[in-house]
Amino acid sequence: MAIAYAAVLLLQQGQVTAAVLLFSAGVSVKMNVLLMAPPVLAVVIKVSNPWVLLKAVILGVALQLALGLPFLISHPWSYVSRAFELSRVFQYKWTVNLKFLPPDVFVSNRVAAGLLASHVMLLAAWTLARWFAPDG
Known about the structure:
Structural class: mainly alpha
Radius of gyration: 18 Å
Order of helices and strands: HHHHHHH
């Protein structure tokens, strides 16, 4: 996470390309850095022009491909499919907020899809209402 925080610091200093590259490096070290991606992207969009954004995104993706190349060459399907294992079922014993659900309901695909869809919709609503609201 320290790498991601350093990327945010660079972003605060207006160094968009360096921030995105460092953020991409942070993602390659620990996937939970991706949780910071929506607000980081929102800030990058607000403080830079489309060409800087495009250049930064291309460099960030290129860094991910370069760092993942040995794994993509040797085991491409395993590397990509296990990176975002959306078919994983969470264990009921670790839930805190959804204990009111019976275990068989908690592990169902419908609940997982509903939680993911509601998360994406709430994130989109927050983005439009707060991050991209007119500055006042």
